[in-house]
Amino acid sequence: MNHVIHKSETRGRANHGWLESYHTFSFANYYNPERMHFGVLRVLNDDRVAPGMGFGTHPHDNMEIISIPLEGDLEHKDSMGNVTVIRNGDVQVMSAGTGITHSEYNRNKDQEVKFLQIWIFPNKKNVTPRYDQITLNKADRNNTFQQIISPNHDDDGVWIHQDAWFHMANLSAGKSIDYSIKRAQNGAYFFILSGNVIINGQDLYTRDGIGIWNMEDPIRVQASSDAEILLMDVPMSLKI
Fold first, then answer.
1. Among 52, 77, 122, 150, which is most exposed with the fewest C-beta within 10 angstroms?
2. Taking 70 as the threshold, does the pLDDT of residue 158 lie above it?
3. Are 143 and 87 found together in one domain?
4. Which residue did the predictor score with more confidence, 238 or 184?
5. pTM
6. Structurally, how many domains does the chain consist of?
7. In which domain, by residue range, is 162 found?
8. Do residue 223 and residue 122 come from a single domain?
9. Share of the chain above pLDDT 70, in %
């Protein structure tokens, strides 16, 4: 088994006034050659956007872009004609493919919006751009892993162009669950949204992350307190 731990306080930080962002991996002005990506997981940004503010129209291509709202209402507009609002409990996916533009704004004037911005390298280049969004039943992740993303069109959650599976779990204090990595070529990256958990003997706290690969046995996740976890099961190879 191999593993890497990223403590919350070691993340890159950018504060633009209207935006406060913490970067698990190198992004924009934060550069750390030892933290470029975890397999095909390229960006894991923990963003807070001030009331009424947001990201103006900007381009993307050849990337799977995932937004997971944590608090507030995030308004999305894109060059495919989509105008939507995503909230806690929703998951949004864009396959940028040959190229798209989009904007994201805090719809509310009286509260922050908090969301995770995640980029995954695709396994196919120059696909037709696409947009998808789903509202999940959060009760289905109580003391178990709820699948929210997969490579399969007809599977639970939304799908992306990559052999990756995302799950979320809300664990009660004292509970433990096991997770088996889907493919031998994959690794699992756990991001602790809140609480204290022990993963394979490692104590992890709010906004800590741990990546595990070359692991044949199931990974044990134990909650020392009530905890919320995001799990990303991703290929470790960048080959397309």
1. 52
2. yes
3. no
4. 184
5. 0.97
6. 2
7. 138-235
8. no
9. 100
Is residue 23 located within the same domain as residue 126? yes
Amino acid occupying residue 55: F
Of 114, 59, 67, residue with least CA distance to 94: 67
Is the residue at 226 inside a domain?
A: yes
Is the pLDDT score of 240 beyond 80?
no
User: Is 118 in the same domain as 188?
Assistant: no
Q: Is residue 1 part of a domain?
A: no
Q: How far is CA 175 from CA 167, 184, 191, 195, 200, in A?
A: 17, 27, 17, 13, 14
Q: Which residue has the tokens 């595990």?
A: 212
What's the pLDDT tens digit per position in 179-235? 999 999 999 999 999 999 999 999 999 999 999 999 999 999 999 999 999 999 999
Residue 7, domain member (yes or no): no
- Same domain for 116 and 158: no
Burial class (CB in 10 A: 0-12, 13-18, 19+), 162: buried
Query: How far is residue 38 from each of residues 138, 143, 217, measured CA to CA in Å?
Result: 27, 26, 20
